[in-house]
Each structure stands twice: as C-alpha cells, then as structure tokens.
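[SOLVED] Need 3D model of a two-part complex

Original post:
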Amino acid sequence: MESFSFLEHFQIWLKAYLILSLFSFMYKDNKFYKLSEHVFAGLSAGYYVGLIWQTVIIQQLVNPMFDKGEWWLIFPGLLGLLMFARMIPKWSWISRTSLAFYMGSTAGIYLIQTLHGFILPQVLSTMVSLDPSNGFAATLLALIIVIGVISTLIYFYFSKEHTGFMGVTARVGIWFIMISFGAHFGYTVMGRISLLIGRVQFLVYDWGESIRQIF
Amino acid sequence: MRTTIPIIVAFLAGTLLIVSFFFHPETIWIGDAKEVILQWMTIVGGFALVLGVVSIVRVNARAVQRKSEGWFYKLMTVISVFAMAIPAMMPVTKESVGGSIFYSIFPDSWMGYLGTGSNSFYDWLFNYVDAPMMETMFAMLAFYIASAAYRAFRARNAEATLLLFTATLVMLWRVPMGEAFLRLFSDNLPGYINTYVMGGFNVAVQRGIIIGAALGAASMSLRIILGIERTYMGK
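Solution:
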C-alpha cells in the first residue's frame, strides 16, 4: 500500500477516534462518547442548515427574486421569516399563519399523494389473478398476497371487536405480521452487521496501516 | 383572528393543491398552482428547518451561559453547528450574478473551501466526521439489536416462534455461508425464501400496513384542511 499523506493520516486517526469513542458507550457512558455524541448532533443540524441555505434559500428564493425578477417570491419569503416570531412569546401567534400554510399545503399533497400514489396502486397490485391455470407457484403467491393484505388490514381495524370471523381473520393477520416482522428483523440485523463489519474493516486495515506507517 | 386566519390559509392552500391536481397546467392557470404552491412550501419549510436549528443553538447557548450541567458538551454542539453551517452558507461566486445580493468578498483561493461543493470544508466535515459517526451509530445498533433479539426471539408462543423461525431463515439466507447451509436441505430453499417470504408474506403485510397508514394520512390531511385538526397551532 502506498504511504499516506499527512492529511490522510489525520483523517484516518480522526475517524478512528470517533468510531472508538462511540463504541466505548457499549462499556458505559463516558466523556469521550458524550463529546462525540454532541459534536454529531451539532454537525447534523449544521449539515441541514447548509443544505437548506444553498438549495432552498439561495437557489429557490434569492436567485429567482434578484436574478430573474420573480418578485412575488417575497411572499413565501415573508411567510418563512414569520416563522421566527415563535421565538418571541408575545408575538408567537404570528407564526401560526406560516405554519398553517405549510400544514395546509402538506395536507393537500398528502391527500392526493396517498390516494393516488399509495392506496390505489397498492389495491390494484393486490387484485391479482387466482386462476389455477397460471401454475401452482403463481397461484400460491397470489393467494398469500390476497389473504395477507386482507387479514393484515382486518388486524389493524379496531372499530369492530375481533370476534367470530373478524377474530379468526385477525388471528391469521397476526401470523402474517409475525412472519413479515421476522423477515424485516433478519434483514435489519444483517444490514447493521454489515455496517459493523465496515467499521471493523476500517479500524483493522486503514487505521492499522496508518499505525504501521507512523510507528 | 389569531386562529381564523391560519385556518383559512390552511384551507385555501390545501384546497388549491387538491383542485389543481384535476386540471392540466397548460389549459388553465389553476393547473399550474400546484407547482407554485410546492415552491412556496419548500421555501417556508426551509425556513422552518432553519428555525429548528436556531432553536437548538439558543437552548444550548443558554445552558452554556448559565454553566449548567454538561455545559462543555453543549458548547461543542453549538460550535459544531456553526463549523458546519457557516462555511456552507458562504457564497462561492465573485460576481453579483444578475443583480443577486449574495456574492463572495473572499479571495479566489478560498472559494474551493466554501459552499457545499465537493472538496469544501462542509463536504470534508460530512465525509470525515459526520458520516463515520452516523455509520458507527447504526453499526452499534447491531449489538443492541442482538439483546433485543434475545428478548423477542424467546419462543414463548406460536407467534414468537414464527418470528424467530422467519428471522433466522432470512439471516441465514443473507450470508453466503448461511445460504450454503440452507442448500443442504434443498437447492431451491434460498429461492423459496426470496419468492414466498420476502415477495409473498412480507409484501402482503407491508401492503396492508401501507394501505392502512395511507388511509390514516388521508383522513388526517382532510381534518387539517377542514380546520378540525388544530394541534399544530397549539390548540
């Protein structure tokens, strides 16, 4: 492996310190972990400020207003600025208008998006053919999907007591849900393990190589 | 007035968006309203996010000022916010493009480090400090998920056994050694897990949950537009 530059050594040691300080929490809460945790929280918040500033405030508000003469964007800009009235208790009610605009438009999008983008396509995909002439495997898969969707929906339907037919279907729903959650759990565990392997590989190979080169 | 005006604004914004969905932007102006409101929403939402961060800074700065418990860590949070945000907010062009009020007053040699582009200080902090910590936090969950698994996987009843059995199957299927082990039983077993467990049971339940959650979101949206739901105003 080629030798690292000073900056590369610094980056590797910084990453190694952060990884080990966060892992140290598994032993017990300590100062190193706390410091890294607070830096992480601050950087994550700062990351979004930078992102929003460049992609929204500059690209969608300031530049169109001053470069393209889209003066009417002053209204959403003012609505956005009114949000900051929340910081003054006496004037905090002013921010409600901005919040209401945001909530109202989000609700409008959600209403269309959920009906058009989620409910209808998902219902449509569930209406599969149960014709046995499609073959055993396809029919079995179609049956699993139809029974699974209906029983899951009934399990989460609490407006009627789960007795009789509803009770039996809800029971089937629980089994389906358990299988799905088990599959999800297994998938998540393997994803996390894969990240852990990545961290350990970094410590062993990159940090190990840096230690070898320095000492 | 303090409540009525916001309710009217929410109603108009929501209704206009829904109505504009049914019209073509090229035939009638209302069809274009969707794009306009979406842009306005992004701008207002951007300010809301910045407000959230300003609030974090205020709360932590106050704790530092009062030297309350753990003030040093809170100071580090504030410093980190500024370290990440301020260089990213700096303009990266020397000229005032088209009359824009934001242009850089810094020397040319500094340009590469400002803004959010690749090789900027913002980018460096993200790649070498923020992202490794994010990955480590998620990697740490592997240990906690193991202890959670012990509690969840104890086969106390039929449902827990089903959960244990499926999770074990999927975990084995996801690693080459486990897949080889599964093939000892049947060469088709990994394929069956993929088709019937992931593509059958899992898809069916996810679909049920998505439909249920989407219906809930739609009804909540309707409540907000009609002014029935007012909790976001502190009511």
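Edit: Chain B touches chain A through 129 residues (CB under 8 Å).
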